[in-house]
Structures
1.
Amino acid sequence: MSTLQTRFLEPKDIPALMALEHSKWEPDQAASDTVILERIQTYPDLCIGTFCSRTGKALASLFMRPVSPAMFTAPTKWKIAADVHAENIAHGHRRSLFGISLSSNHAQAVKEIFKFFYPHALKAGWRDVYLGSPIPGFGKARKKKS
């Protein structure tokens, strides 16, 4: 049994995160190492991961960014909502977050991310998290159905 370690992500985590991305997402859905680095550098306190402390393997990751809740009152494409430099970032708002990507192959690792982040979120004044990850395999499933 592995021991789980949950913490804020750092650039040194990118190789392990890339392995998780490619195990979870289709090639056109997986974030690149450049995108992951940009997320970590732009919002270091909103990027969290759970790792196996024995192997260093990334078991779950969550990337978030601030948003204005008004962003969700009109149709919004995921790529726009996920863009850390998009205009709809909540300037001056410290209440709502958009979950750009929640990736995991390990249910307990996801629970550990939320357990870790809740106290940080409350202390920072975050009150809402809108999770918006694309659905893995959805594109493939739609093509097979047609």
2.
Amino acid sequence: MFGGRCNKYANIRKKKIFNEAEVVDYIEKRNDILFKDCAPDPAALVKKKDYIVGIPRCFSIYTLWPLYSWFFHSLGIETLVSCDVSHEGTARVESNYCFPAEIAHGAVQDIFDRKTDFIFLPHFRDMESYEKDGVANF
């Protein structure tokens, strides 16, 4: 929902019909670009270390995955990205957080449950922004 209204319900009320086959899922396209096209092939990894680093799919991972994936790949370290948002992890939130932070709890729990050797969860206070006098927060 945005702007106080979701187009889904306005379209239903106006009886607009869309051909689902023609609708482009830009989120899926972006994820394919970041996690497949711009990332190294996991099958090409030459392991130099005998451990696995778990990386929860949350926060800056979506924007900076090509950097992180190539970093660990170049070091010869196998990575494992979370696949699920664990309900047990989101239930551990003991205060009111924004939805992305609740998702992060579930993604970290998924990595924890998969018994990786390390969990990589970078934190940035802020990053450069396209705005002249502003910063981008992650």
